[in-house]
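Q: Got a minute? One more chain.
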Amino acid sequence: MMNQKLSIKIKIADRDYPMHTEQSMESKLRKAGSMINQKLKYFSKHLGVQDKQDLLAMAAFDCMVDLLTLQENTQKSQALLKNKISSIDEMISS
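A: Always. Here it is, folded:
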């Protein structure tokens, strides 16, 4: 059976963005849209910024900082795991 694409609209900054997606991705897309809107409200309320373009730029910047932090933490965790596996391997080998 072929996966059928859904037509959905995600509202970001009071604008609708129509898109086609697999049913399995719909909830992620809706959650991502909701998270962006929450960031926009936060920046508007706490920083007093009202311009939608500025708010979207700040949200994009914030998301990229989060992504870079996550990637850095993942690399550190992978290095630690590699070291632990090497230590265990050495103990087993001796």
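A: The beta strands are 5-12, 15-22.
Q: Perfect, thanks.
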